[in-house]
Design brief:
Radius of gyration: 23 Å
Largest sheet: 6 strands, mixed
Bound molecules: adenosine-5'-triphosphate, magnesium ion
CATH architecture of the largest domain: 3-Layer(aba) Sandwich
Number of strands: 22
CATH topology of the largest domain: Rossmann fold
Length: 501
């Protein structure tokens, strides 16, 4: 029997992979007109459960019902026919097709068998307007940032939806304005009777948006709760299976008045990707936060420092010497490392194992003619796995088999192995669960204490404020404000972001 109002009912759903029970005997009911959060640590089984519901994986057991009738979706398209529409954790559209075509892929308007391109473009424009997105629908999807691609994927899913919309970490790459926009759309959909299931690691969003929530741990369901009736601490301990250690906010120590030469200095830097006149300096042990809205130039500063974009004007100095990287290889050779924002395209190397993905940068730095012995590799990998608490039963398995958050940690481990002087982290906690989030912030402080210089771009102001000793607020590809030391607060950063020109 389905629960009252359940549009989607799962009973005893199981999914095993070789050696791992990813989803174990999970029941879940999703009701019409509710927003339901699916929560749990990295590797808890959330994405796997969603992939079972949406036809990517065939379950090893259990029942899936829509409106009381059993279904076994064979593909996402099949699930869509049953009224289930999805946005996955990674954007799964086709980068080499236009935005318009991506929005209507597999459901193109046709007449006499031919695609009606004009209508498709018109519809695409109208759809994006509902999201207040100013996007040229004729451009290739790949010409937009990962965040905009994510919004396009969401627009597509919402437009396809009949009964159930499922979103796996849709907000990970969005800034607060876009998150607001998305929430508005989700609330409207809910009020129209759609059932929405959403995975997120942001607990504020859970409380702001959802009616009920289900917590998973180690592949099993811990329970379903009415959001408003579950205190935050109780939620966290359900997720972790223990209490979260209180985190005291301690910044990297202040080095701004130091007489040492700056470890890194940017003077009037402009680059080929549009950033202009950036000035700042960082000492050893500094944590420099890069704040600003999406598209403000945060990631571009990271890319220029790492040799991904060329410097057109101004200069960078590394210690006493000029530094002008022409490629990431040169940047790495000079002691830089960059942990990128979009792990799917810039980070993980798919056919390779977890071990190979971890050691690749360190090996490249040593030179391929000096291969690391297997025993050395195993030791490095074991140490990093332990240090970053990566959930991985066997480092020889393909990295694609790890959960999203654990893949993110593997990339971080890769760069830490190169012992960089300057570590650039672009959205380091994207997709990382609440326990690991606290650990990564601690790690940032520890690396600073060891003398590393960190440049961290993040859309989470709270996290930047927690560890930065200088925050650069970017706007329109320029540096709009620098906030340092005691002046750093969430309000100060927010005010600088919002400040009119
Ligand atoms: N294709 C696969 N092959 C083998 N194992 C897999 C595969 N996909 C997931 N797993 C394993 O199943 C478990 C659950 O992973 P899943 O991706 O569902 O976690 P998650 O809750 O979505 O985590 P995250 O918050 O990190 O995204 C993990 O142990 C993962 O390594
Ligand atoms: Mg996941």
């Amino acid at each position: 029997m389905s629960a009252q109002n359940a549009v989607l009912q799962l009973t005893g759903v199981c999914k095993r992979f070789k050696g791992v029970i990813a989803v174990n005997n999970v029941d879940l009911d999703l009701r019409a007109g509710e927003i339901h959060a699916l929560l749990g640590e990295n590797g808890a089984g959330k994405s796997t459960l969603i992939k079972v519901i949406t036809g990517v994986y065939t379950p090893d057991g259990g029942r899936i019902e829509i409106d009381g009738a059993a279904i076994c979706p064979k593909s996402t398209l099949d699930a869509q026919k049953h009224g289930i529409s999805t946005v996955y954790q990674e954007v799964n559209l086709l980068p080499n097709l236009s935005v318009a075509h991506n929005l209507y892929l597999g459901r193109e308007p046709r007449r006499f068998g031919c695609i009606q391109w004009k209508k498709l473009q018109r519809d695409a424009r109208a759809l994006l307007q509902r999201f207040s997105l100013d996007i040229d629908v004729n451009e290739l999807l790949s010409s937009y940032s990962i965040a905009v691609q994510q919004l396009i994927a969401i627009a597509r899913a919402v437009d396809c939806a009949a009964k159930v919309v499922i979103l796996d970490e849709p907000t990970a790459s969005l800034d607060s304005r876009e998150v607001g926009l998305l929430f508005q759309i989700l609330r409207t959909l809910r009020d129209q009777g759609t059932a929405i299931l959403i995975v997120t690691h942001f607990l504020d969003q859970v409380y702001a948006l959802t009616d009920r929530l289900t917590v998973m741990r180690n592949g099993e369901k811990v329970g379903t709760f009415v959001t408003a009736e579950l205190p935050r601490e109780a939620l966290v301990s359900h997720m972790l299976g223990k209490e979260l250690q209180a985190m005291e906010a301690s910044r990297a120590s202040q080095h701004t008045d130091s007489v040492d030469p700056a470890a890194l200095q940017l003077r009037e830097l402009s680059s080929s990707n549009g950033i202009r006149n950036i000035n700042f300096s960082a000492q050893r042990g500094d944590a420099i936060g890069l704040a600003g809205l999406l598209g403000s130039g945060r990631s571009e500063v990271c890319a220029a420092l790492f040799g991904l974009d060329s410097v057109t004007e101004g200069e960078i100095r590394l210690g006493e010497a000029p530094y002008k990287p022409r490629s990431p290889a040169q940047a790495i050779a000079q002691g830089f490392a960059l942990c990128p924002e979009d792990r799917k395209t810039d980070g993980i190397v798919h056919p390779l194992s977890v071990r190979e993905n971890m050691i690749i940068a360190h090996q490249a730095q040593r030179g391929w003619w000096r291969p690391l012995r297997r025993s050395e590799q195993n030791k490095l990998v074991a140490d990093a796995t332990q240090r970053l608490k990566i959930v991985c039963s066997d480092p020889e398995k393909p990295i694609g088999e790890l959960s999203g958050g654990n893949q993110q940690k593997v990339i971080l481990a890769r760069w830490l192995m190169t012992h960089p002087q300057i570590l650039i982290l672009d959205e380091p906690t994207r997709g990382i669960d609440i326990g690991a989030h606290a650990e990564i912030l601690q790690l940032i402080r520890k690396l600073c204490a060891e003398g590393m210089t960190l440049i961290v771009a993040s859309s989470e102001i709270e996290e930047l404020v927690a560890f930065s000793n200088k925050i650069l607020v970017m706007r329109d590809k320029r540096l709009s404000t620098t906030i340092a030391g005691q002046d750093i607060s969430e309000n100060a950063v927010l005010a600088a972001i919002a400040e009119p020109d």
